[in-house]
């Protein structure tokens, strides 16, 4: 199963200048819980936004650079299709960004785990529009802002609608 996992603002904003637009500890916890132990696919810029590889996950980095060198344990692929080929077939694979990788993968994904941040932001990277004729919202869990979360947000799970 291919799952896109992201946090996006009201206008599908993901980030700006290769950085997140918010700090939501509960979103980080959810991301860690869902992706730990799995293969995670990301673009090079997303990978480089981390200070180091995320623990207990196999990183698959998509880059067109022929001589890109990644840390030990990380896999390199020159396109999304090749990235998916190196992943196990009977496990959930998480696609974690960035915007271009999400656009390339949304039509082949089975599930979307989205944290909808209830605010509008200035951004240069966006999550693709979720076509509700193709995707069904199967779970929604609202969280109000509090002392640790500057913005309210909703954990949303979408599955491909069966036609």
UniProtKB/TrEMBL annotation:
PROSITE patterns given in the database record: DHFR_2
Keyword list, A-Z: NADP, One-carbon metabolism, Oxidoreductase
GO CC term, one of those recorded: cytosol
GO molecular function, one term: NADP+ binding
Keyword field contains Oxidoreductase: yes
Catalytic activity entry: (6S)-5,6,7,8-tetrahydrofolate + NADP(+) = 7,8-dihydrofolate + NADPH + H(+)
EC number: 1.5.1.3
Metabolic or biological pathway: Cofactor biosynthesis; tetrahydrofolate biosynthesis; 5,6,7,8-tetrahydrofolate from 7,8-dihydrofolate: step 1/1
InterPro entries according to UniProt: DHFR (IPR012259), DHFR-like_dom_sf (IPR024072), DHFR_dom (IPR001796)
Pfam families linked: DHFR_1
Domain DHFR: from-to ranges: 1-160
Role played: Key enzyme in folate metabolism. Catalyzes an essential reaction for de novo glycine and purine synthesis, and for DNA precursor synthesis.
Family: Belongs to the dihydrofolate reductase family.
The name this protein goes by in its record: Dihydrofolate reductase
């Amino acid at each position: 199963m291919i799952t896109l996992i992201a946090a996006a603002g009201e206008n599908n904003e993901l980030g700006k200048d290769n950085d997140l637009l918010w700090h939501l500890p509960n979103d980080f916890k959810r991301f860690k819980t869902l992706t730990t132990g799995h293969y995670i696919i990301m673009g090079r810029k997303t990978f480089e936004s981390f200070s180091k590889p995320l623990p207990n996950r196999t990183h698959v980095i998509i880059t067109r650079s022929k001589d890109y060198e990644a840390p030990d344990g990380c896999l390199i692929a020159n396109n999304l299709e090749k990235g998916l080929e190196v992943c196990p077939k009977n496990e959930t694979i998480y696609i974690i960004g960035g915007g271009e990788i999400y656009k390339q993968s949304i039509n082949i994904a089975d599930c979307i785990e989205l944290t909808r941040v209830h605010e509008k932001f200035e951004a240069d990277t966006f999550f693709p529009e979720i076509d509700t004729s193709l995707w069904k919202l199967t779970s929604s869990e609202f969280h109000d802002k509090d002392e640790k979360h500057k913005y309210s947000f909703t954990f949303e799970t979408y599955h491909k609608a069966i036609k």
